[in-house]
């Protein structure tokens, strides 16, 4: 069986009631071309290489990894902001299951009312030439919802939901601080009453004291509106706080996927060990006691990923003849705890 | 401008909010733009000069001026040739006895028509071709940009001279196109949109990757909405600034063509032709035939460039304006 | 008490902007001793980077000016030194590492050229000897094949490797003080761990004093002996890392620690949050600068700016009127005690 086939098979071919979204064998490659007149493809960046996972209704799935691991590309393929090279993205909407990867025209527009995104950079994600009112109302305008007056009322309502004053509606984005802008981005995402939201590093650009405000807001909204989140981040502390389940990605593949506590307390993949041990903890006593697992070298280029296990070039536990030859499958080693490693081992790292 | 015309309703005035300056009336992009422009002193002076010039050339037929082609004679019937500036003939006369003041003002007509027409044409063509190339990557982009390279590769002056020569020989063309400044203007416009198209394409390529564009796409916005609502407004600054530069350079190139004898046909006055003729007179001591059209040309082009600077700053949305 | 290596006294660095005077650093005083590793923490706009730039005298007039203050380094007031002597100190006795190693390295010169230039500038050695020192410096920061890599250009190095080169460059002249301004912020967490580990070993080995400027309290906890917390251009609290993390006495420090998510925190709880946003440095509030966001503020906080003064006898300094009476350590952080952020209309609208 191929890499994630077993995972897909174990989940069954039907989408169970409690699953809102399932990604099957998602692949995204960006061509590398050369030449001016006759573009010739000379290779490709394998940003996402055959990954599968599912998100259950009402939960937060954290997707973590370092830069270049493919987590943001995955999110953009899920939302069809990028065209997947191959694979399925099954999404449950109004009782029917639609493959987003193949959806066109009206179907795609209908799905887009159900899923929204909040971006990392609160400065780049708001059009500097639009007022807050027009930014937040844009999804309503695009889908032709409501009269002007109704939209105006809805904008006011949304602004107060995210903790801004309705009087802010006529201001421009640059008049706000980073945290307030992120609230505007959240208000826009909520405008269409989506059931599913991708949060792409929503607090990474914010100062610590502001991060907590936004995280609390996101949790409140999830509870109030029954939202399902795909939370993308590189900060493992934030992910532990907000997620129910967590997937760790490395170089376009899922290394480990488990319940939050299982992943943090009983990580099995050597990359998860290294990643978790590298995250600093704001406590001098704890830091003095900890032993870091320092990785050798740098992340290889996704244009030319290593053969076999993608992590084997830096893995402290690699075995020649196995790890550099055979791609490890994502296997369920404990209930709901999936690991893609030939030599998994439970290890407490803090 | 707020699309929804959002107004704060006349509710209980929230004193706390007002005290913090938070309860505000909507300010449109236009308000912000003009407020920022007004802060730019040099640009305001330039705008004043240009406004004055435009009024002058438009109102010229109704002003107490001599006909710019009339050869003046005194009461005794002697030609008033190469008369130095004096009362009644404030800028003197040229070697054919024509009023330099009247010729500078009417010459401004030709120059402004050439500049503005070429500018509008460049703005339209450059924006259209640049945005198509920037928004549709692949074949359309490739084809359009190679065509743009071709146009950019044409040497402006020789092509303008050759085409300018051929144009009047084409029988079915209307007279205004063959003779007047419009022919030159269209010619210059068609030859100089290339750099703007490149700039617009680059702006589109960078703006289409911006997160606010992705957000609009995620909300289900159509291509048309994304282009007209999100990308173009944010690309306006380079478009307007480049266009002002084109207006300035078109005026100079028209002057150069007229200087070389390939511009607007005499006796219609243009600044370039006047400078050419004035240069020959100035060496004989009749400096006014050279200096006044020269000053008009330099001041106009400088003003246009300063206004362009001011527009660039005024179009920057992050330049703050204090709310009162 | 040994002589301090660095003594900063009542430093004020202001910037003139169109909107008004930005009081980026507004009256800070602190001392650093030889071999001390001091964390300077604060959020964006707290003045931590401007403090470093002021020490290095890299504040550029006319916009930026050190208005008052003394920066005494090894007995000399740096602010009174002529520029040529200051140049000898920069990169020699005080070295600096920046956040973005790509922009700090010149892309058109090889790593070797840039390293050797620094070395020859500060040590009286010839080219050949400088080359030897450069190779040794790269080996010290664990760059493999140091000798070959001298001929490489900055873009041929990864982000982590570039930061290693910066550290090699900073330490090549054996400085007494190394200022590291967010050295790992642009790096991934596993690379950050490598770099911090390397810096800790090198600093300990050589006894170099390090001023680590960062917004990441976790990095500080693993690296620093002492910490100073900055807010809106002033120091609000300083002390040993142990004291600051385990017994914060300024409400801002306490709130910052309470609002952080922790990797080893298994609770599913609501985070404490500090309401509002930092004030505009152009229009600072009257009295205590943290007052508009402080849940413990009383009347006096509105009127008088608290000075940094000793609390207890372990060298702890706190700038809070209520430092003696508040016992923040015993406060349980939970959702109920979290102030309601959202309704606060005073949340600073900053341009």
Q: Count of DSSP helices of chain A?
A: 11
Q: Assign the CATH architecture of chain B.
A: Orthogonal Bundle
SSE topology string of chain B: HHHHHHHHHHHHH
Low-confidence stretches of chain A: none
Principal-axis shape of chain B: elongated
Structural class of chain A: alpha/beta
Helix content of chain B: 55-70%
Sketch the major β-sheet of chain B: none
| Lateral arrangement of strands in the main beta sheet of chain A | 6-7-8-3-9-10-12-11
Question: What is the assembly state of the chains in this entry?
Answer: heterotrimer
Low-confidence stretches of chain B: 1-23
Tally of DSSP helical segments of chain B: 13
- The CATH topology name of chain B reads MetI-like fold
Distance between the termini of chain B: 20 Å
The portion of residues forming beta strands of chain A comes to 15-25%
Describe this structure in words.
The complex is a heterotrimer of chains A (350), B (324) and C (351). Chain A has helices at residues 5-10, 71-78, 105-114, 132-142, 148-161, 178-190, 208-225, 236-242, 260-265, 270-278, 284-289, and strands at 19-34, 40-56, 60-64, 86-93, 96-99, 115-118, 196-200, 228-233, 245-250, 253-259, 331-334, 337-339. Chain A is α/β, with parallel strands linked by helices and 350 residues long. Chain A has an eight-stranded mixed sheet, with helices on both faces. Chain A has a four-stranded antiparallel sheet with strand order 2-1-4-5. In chain A, a hairpin with a 2-residue loop joins strand 11 and strand 12 (337-339). Chain B is mostly helical and 324 residues long. Chain B is built from 13 helices and no strands. The two termini of chain B are 20 Å apart. Chain C has twelve helices and twelve strands. In chain C, a hairpin with a 6-residue loop joins strand 11 (309-310) and strand 12. Chains in contact: A-B, A-C, B-C. Chain A binds chain B through residues 37, 76, 79, 81, 108-109, 112-113, 115-117, 119-121, 124-131, 133-134, 137-139, 141-143, 148, 151-152, 155, 165-172, 174-175, 185, 188, 191-192, and chain B through 2-8, 14, 17, 22-27, 29, 32, 142, 146, 210-212, 214-222, 225, 229-230, 233-234, 317-318, 320.
């Amino acid at each position: 069986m191929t890499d994630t086939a077993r995972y897909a098979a174990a989940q069954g071919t039907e989408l169970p009631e409690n699953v809102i979204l399932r990604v099957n064998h998602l692949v995204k490659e960006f061509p590398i071309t050369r030449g001016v007149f006759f573009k010739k493809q000379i290779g490709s960046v394998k940003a996402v290489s055959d990954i599968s996972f599912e998100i259950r209704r009402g939960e937060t799935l954290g997707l973590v990894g370092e830069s270049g691991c493919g987590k943001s590309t995955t999110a953009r393929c899920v939302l069809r902001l990028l065209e997947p090279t191959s694979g399925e993205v099954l999404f449950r909407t109004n009782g029917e299951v639609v493959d987003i990867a193949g959806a066109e025209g009206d179907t795609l527009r209908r799905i887009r009312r159900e899923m929204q995104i909040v971006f990392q950079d609160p400065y780049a994600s708001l059009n500097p030439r639009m007022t807050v009112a027009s930014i937040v109302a844009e999804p309503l305008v695009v889908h032709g919802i409501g009269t002007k007056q109704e939209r105006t009322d809805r904008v006011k309502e949304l602004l107060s939901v995210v903790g801004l004053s309705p009087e802010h509606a006529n201001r421009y984005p640059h008049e706000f601080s980073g945290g307030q802008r992120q609230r505007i981005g959240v208000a826009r995402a909520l405008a269409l009453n989506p059931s599913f939201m991708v949060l792409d590093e929503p607090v990474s650009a914010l100062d610590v004291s502001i991060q907590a405000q936004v995280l609390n807001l996101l949790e409140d909204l999830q509870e109030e509106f029954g939202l399902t989140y795909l939370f993308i981040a590189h900060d493992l502390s934030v992910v532990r706080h907000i997620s129910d389940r967590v997937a760790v990605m490395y170089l376009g593949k899922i290394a480990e996927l488990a319940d939050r506590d299982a992943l943090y307390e009983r990580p099995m993949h050597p990359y998860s060990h290294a990643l978790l041990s590298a995250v600093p903890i704001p406590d001098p006593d704890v830091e003095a006691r900890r032993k870091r697992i320092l990785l050798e070298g740098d992340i290889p280029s996704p244009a030319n990923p290593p053969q076999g296990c993608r992590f084997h070039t830096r893995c402290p536990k690699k075995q020649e003849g196995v790890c550099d030859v055979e791609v490890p499958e994502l296997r369920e080693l404990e209930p709901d705890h999936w690991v893609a490693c030939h030599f998994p081992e439970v290890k407490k790292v803090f | 401008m707020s699309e929804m015309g959002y107004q704060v309703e006349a509710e209980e005035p929230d004193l706390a909010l007002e005290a913090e300056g938070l309860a505000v009336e909507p300010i449109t992009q236009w308000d912000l733009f003009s407020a920022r422009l007004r802060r730019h002193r040099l640009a305001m002076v330039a705008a004043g000069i240009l406004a004055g010039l435009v009024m002058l050339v438009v109102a010229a037929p109704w002003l107490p001026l001599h006909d710019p082609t009339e050869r003046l004679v005194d009461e005794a019937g002697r030609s008033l040739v190469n008369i130095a500036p004096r009362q009644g003939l404030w800028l003197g006369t040229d070697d054919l006895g024509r009023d330099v003041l009247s010729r500078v003002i009417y010459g401004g007509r030709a120059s402004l028509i050439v500049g503005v027409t070429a500018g509008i044409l460049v703005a339209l063509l450059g924006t259209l071709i640049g945005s198509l190339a920037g928004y549709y990557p692949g074949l359309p982009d490739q084809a359009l940009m190679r065509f743009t390279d071709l146009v950019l590769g044409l040497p402006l002056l020789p092509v303008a001279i050759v085409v300018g020569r051929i144009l009047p020989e084409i029988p079915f063309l209307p007279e205004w196109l063959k003779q007047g400044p419009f022919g030159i203007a269209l010619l210059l416009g068609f030859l100089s949109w290339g750099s703007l198209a490149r700039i617009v394409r680059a702006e589109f390529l960078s703006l289409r990757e911006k997160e606010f564009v992705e957000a609009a796409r995620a909300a289900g916005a159509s291509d048309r909405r994304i282009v007209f609502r999100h990308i173009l407004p944010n690309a306006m600054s380079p478009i307007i600034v480049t266009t002002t530069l084109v207006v300035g350079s078109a005026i100079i190139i028209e002057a150069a063509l007229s200087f070389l004898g390939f511009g607007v046909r005499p006796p219609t006055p243009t600044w370039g032709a006047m400078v050419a003729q004035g240069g020959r007179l100035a060496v004989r001591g009749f400096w006014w035939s050279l200096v006044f059209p020269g000053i008009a040309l330099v001041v106009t082009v400088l003003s246009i460039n300063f206004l362009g600077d001011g527009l660039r700053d005024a179009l920057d949305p992050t330049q703050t304006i204090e709310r009162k | 008490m040994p002589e301090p290596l660095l003594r900063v006294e009542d430093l004020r660095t202001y910037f003139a902007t169109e909107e008004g005077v930005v009081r980026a650093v507004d009256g800070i005083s602190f001392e650093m001793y030889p071999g001390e590793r001091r964390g300077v923490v604060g959020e964006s706009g707290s003045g931590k980077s401007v403090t470093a730039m002021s020490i290095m005298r890299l504040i550029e007039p006319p916009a930026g000016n050190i208005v008052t203050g003394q920066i005494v380094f090894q007995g000399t007031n740096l602010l009174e030194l002529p520029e040529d002597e200051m140049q000898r100190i920069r990169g020699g006795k005080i070295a600096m590492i920046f956040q973005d190693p790509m922009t700090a390295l010149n892309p058109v010169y090889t790593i070797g050229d840039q390293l050797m230039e620094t070395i020859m500038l500060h040590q009286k050695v010839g080219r050949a000897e400088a080359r030897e020192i450069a190779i040794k410096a790269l080996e010290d920061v664990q760059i493999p094949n140091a000798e070959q890599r001298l001929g490489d250009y900055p873009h041929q190095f990864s982000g982590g490797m570039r930061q290693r080169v910066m550290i090699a460059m900073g330490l090549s002249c054996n400085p007494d003080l190394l200022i590291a301004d967010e050295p790992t912020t642009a790096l991934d967490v596993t690379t950050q761990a490598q770099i911090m580990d390397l810096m800790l070993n090198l600093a300990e080995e050589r006894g170099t004093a390090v001023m680590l400027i960062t917004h990441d309290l976790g990095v500080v906890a693993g690296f620093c002996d002492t910490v100073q917390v900055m807010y809106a251009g002033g120091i609000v609290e300083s002390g040993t890392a142990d004291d600051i993390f385990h017994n914060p006495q300024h409400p801002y420090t306490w709130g910052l620690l309470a609002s952080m998510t922790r990797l080893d925190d298994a609770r599913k709880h609501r985070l404490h949050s500090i309401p509002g946003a930092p004030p505009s440095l152009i229009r600072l509030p009257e009295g205590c600068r943290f007052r508009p966001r402080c849940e413990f503020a009383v009347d006096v906080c509105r009127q008088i700016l608290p000075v940094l003064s000793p609390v207890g006898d372990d060298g702890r300094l706190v700038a809070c009127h209520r430092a003696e009476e508040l016992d923040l350590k015993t406060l349980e952080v939970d959702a109920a005690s979290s102030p309601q952020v959202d309704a606060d209309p005073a949340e600073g609208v900053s341009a």
